[in-house]
């Protein structure tokens, strides 16, 4: 089939006209949609961008909590922070807490989701019980487990017939915080896993049963591979949240650093420098260092996810 010279001219003209109309529509859509996005952007700039920029500036000064007489001192705060053993101890406590919590929550949330997904009777009740603790405020969860771990009146020692000083011995203090965190926050990851399990096509399991695959093989070869992405999400979210641990640790220790400062986390150390020692400039430098560490973890997660997606293509 041949085309005439007129058609050769008309087709590019129509394509150019369609592209122009699409461009106009995109601009109009942005203009109208921008009014809906503007309130969020304003609040984001006011409560996130501005405090971040303000914190960066304060980190280069010797500002105190009164805000008077802040002088520019360059990188002195950062030099002091990197040479501060207390800061690194606090970071070590946060990292140790993260290493304990992340794998435990990931495995526990998966097991609870499997149980709630396959159980037949009282399914709604099991789901409610597993998720309900996550709805509690951090102070309630911390005070509850502070009472449970109390050596004199707590339930833990009485039930198991032991006499362990959970909150007053540095060997057990962080472990108590970990147990509280597992009970309190596992419901969120449990919900993610449960939603992912419900999204796995049933015909995959039916085909596996017809091929003679048992429950273990179905879980290993179907369930776990299908949950790979959600597992990566759970791990990433839990790492970011665990590194920022603060509430339950300070509540269970009555807002102190714990026995021999064993439960002082990075966030708690930053607040102590800013609001106890009144060194706002130094606290800002410490918080910026922590922000960079958190951002590095998030970027590493994005890089690994992108490489995995590209490798799976």
Averaging pLDDT over every residue, what do you get? 86
Which structural class should the secondary elements be placed in? mainly alpha
Indicate the proportion of strand residues. Answer: under 5%
Number of strands: 0
Radius of gyration: 27 Å
Q: Number of helix segments?
A: 13
The ordered H/E elements are: HHHHHHHHHHHHH
> Biggest β-sheet, characterized?
none
Tell me the span between the first and last alpha carbons.
38 Å
Query: Which of globular, elongated, flat, extended, rod-shaped describes the shape?
Result: globular
Considering DSSP H and I runs of 4 or more, what fraction of the residues is helical? over 70%
Low-confidence sequence ranges: none
Layout of helices and strands:
Layout: H1 5-58, H2 76-82, H3 85-118, H4 123-131, H5 138-148, H6 155-160, H7 170-198, H8 202-210, H9 215-226, H10 228-243, H11 247-252, H12 266-275, H13 280-311
Helix pairs in contact: 2-13, 3-4, 3-7, 3-10, 3-12, 5-7, 10-13, 12-13
Could you name the key traits of this structure?
0% strand; mainly alpha; 13 helices; 313 residues; globular
Describe the structure.
This protein is mostly helical and 313 residues long. The radius of gyration is 27 Å and the shape is globular. 26% of the residues are buried.
Put the structure in a nutshell:
The protein is an all-alpha fold and 313 residues long.
